[in-house]
Design brief:
This protein is an alpha+beta fold and 130 residues long. It has six helices and four strands; from the N terminus they run ααααβααβββ.
């Protein structure tokens, strides 16, 4: 039993030692690299696309909803609600398409369109509850 304990300790102590600064730099670098190599939706790219172009380019929607914009949309839809005047919201004549994609391993991105035109968006963490 002592033999196995000694072997285990020897193996553990042989591990590569790293400087704390080097670990931080490495983690930061790896984080950036993961973002660039994963299937991630670029905010800059997607906001330049019309609705159908975004659907064709990024596909795989997490959810898709259509609703009439009014004054009581809730916290999740604050971005789109405040993109319109109170008068426009109260008229209840604006139809909004809400499209949600998985942006990356940690986030979703929701875009709100009026017709083909992007009106607002929200990037939100997968653990968020509204």
């Amino acid at each position: 039993m002592k033999f196995y304990t000694i072997i285990l300790l020897a193996l553990i102590s042989c591990g590569e030692k790293k400087d704390k600064n080097m670990v931080l730099k490495s983690k930061q670098y790896n984080s950036d690299k993961i973002t660039k190599t994963q299937d991630s939706i670029s905010l800059k790219d997607i906001t330049l696309l019309k609705k159908q172009e975004a659907i064709l380019k990024y596909g795989n929607l997490v959810s898709s909803n259509q609703f009439v914009l009014d004054d009581a949309q809730g916290e999740f839809r604050n971005n789109i609600t405040y993109s319109y005047s109170e008068e426009e919201r109260l008229s209840e004549s604006v139809i909004i398409d809400e499209l949600t994609w998985e942006k990356d391993s940690l986030n979703f991105i929701t875009l709100w369109y009026e017709g083909e035109k992007l009106k607002s968006y929200l990037i939100w963490g997968k653990g968020f509850e509204f």
